[in-house]
Amino acid sequence: MRSKITLTAKILGIIVLVYLILLVGFYLFQDRFVFQSKSLPRNYSFTFDQPFEEHFIATGTVDTLNILLFRTKQPAKGLILYFHGNADNLQRWGNYAVDFTSLGYDILMPDYRGYGKSTGTPNEIVLYSDAQVVLNWAQTTIPHSKLILYGRSLGSAVASHLATTANPDLLMLETPFDELNSALYTFSSRYKFPAKEFLPKVTCKKVIIHGTSDWVVPLSSALRLKPLLKDGDQFVIIEGGSHNNLRDFDKYHKTLKEVLE
Questions:
Q1: Per-residue pLDDT tens for 227-237?
Q2: Is 107 exposed, middle or buried (0-12, 13-18, 19+ CB in 10 A)?
Q3: Is residue 13 domain-shared with residue 93, that is, in the same domain?
Q4: I need a labelling partner for 126 at 20 to 30 A (CA). Which of 17, 32, 52, 254 fits?
């Protein structure tokens, strides 16, 4: 009996030790976990199934941001400023532009610092300030009668923060979290990205889209944003949808069409 207790205690001790090592490891290397960027050489040629324009804009420091503009073939109903998730670069995210250009909108997609051809190192404050830089550039470069901010995952906090001052016509959030730590399960980050603090300050209509099977950002995290919505806002739940496949569901495209048209 005593040997079984001793063995159980050893197993528990190992589990606790491994968990503590994981906690320390995440804290020390969390930048790599939160910002899963993939850089691209400056001469990399993007390939998409629709025409696009590529631009580089200054951040006010030594760094530059790489942005892609996809124009609709129709008379543009407005401009969508799209802030993507925490991984990859515009070679991936640019493939999603067709979901919006097909509905009659121009869409502008920036890469965060350190992502793709954008230079520098990302952090929370930099993402917020760069979002304003991109908006300022768009306001003076791309004529539009309507402005929509769209945030995907990590980008949902960036879009929400910008919406507090940009006064857009619509804010759309795909797979958002209320704050970063609630999306990290038992791990803790020094970054906040607190969408829950920004949404109450956003006066325009808000639409949230989330899936029931999202293992990256649990639905429970997004649902904590629901009480912050007002009359006329929408919280759309896609049954069976996960973090990276909402585009595979008809309900996602139906929602886009209903909201944007």
A1: 999 999 999 99
A2: buried
A3: no
A4: 52
